[in-house]
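From the pipeline queue, job 12 of 40. The input is one protein chain; the requested action is below.

Action: predict structure.
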Amino acid sequence: MDNDLNKPFLVEKQKNRSPIIKIILVISGAACLILALCVVWFTMNNEPRQVDEDAIYVPAIMPSESYDPNSLSDQYGLITYKGKVYIRSGTKISREEAKSIRGDKLGRTTLGWNSGVGPFGKELTTNIGELDIFTVRGYDRGFRIMIYQEFDGGKIWAEFYECLNGMKVRNGADVFDQMKIIGHVQSAKWEALESWDYDKHEYKKFRPDKNLTRFLKSLRDAKPIKQEVVQEQGVFENGEQKFIYIKLEDGSEVSLRLFKDGNYVYYPVYYVASVGLFYKMDQAAFDSLWNRLV
């Protein structure tokens, strides 16, 4: 009978303990979860990071806070758009063909430090003037945009600006696939070093045949080489250099510099400072084109 009398008391006691036990279990579970998350975070942040030894980075140029004639950023035409820095491209477009490739208008630039209004930072800012900026038909606006300006008398100013600033480059495809060269070549010409050096513009046309296609496909797979490494080899002092100009179906013209010594191909990124991308080509693919340029 004593046992029967104690039953309500025991049940009530168990009921009183139940919330406390639940709280303890919740706290214990939360502590275990926090501990597990800490272990995961520590593991992720202390694992050896894989280094891509074959990749190089295009030197990044950022707009100056104020005008500085010794700053590289003040020696280039720069456009900032959606947080990216675009620099005048080595790829050309003629005035006659610029209108057909012009895309949607992004807006009109505002001046940066040139106007005294302060540093870059607005949606469309530049250091070269108030200009109309457009997308380029067929190209990603994250890679290429263009200046297009019409003046009285029908004159047109058109230039491409590209965002390679600070880009990680692992092979030729990272850059040249964005230009959409393969399968879209309309014509090609080349120029000797002496003509280029003295602005003679002595161009010779050559047919864009299987040798050029082989060359361009090999260029996609070519690995980039640090510019200082190539310069130490003295390739710029070697006279065996040729320039090729590849005109695409949309009217854009891509220029490449070929160095026989080392089978290098050079694409200019920043003209003023002679900063560009060097690629080490497969010798057979390189020679198949080089030997045709006579």
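Job complete. The chain has seven helices and 18 strands.
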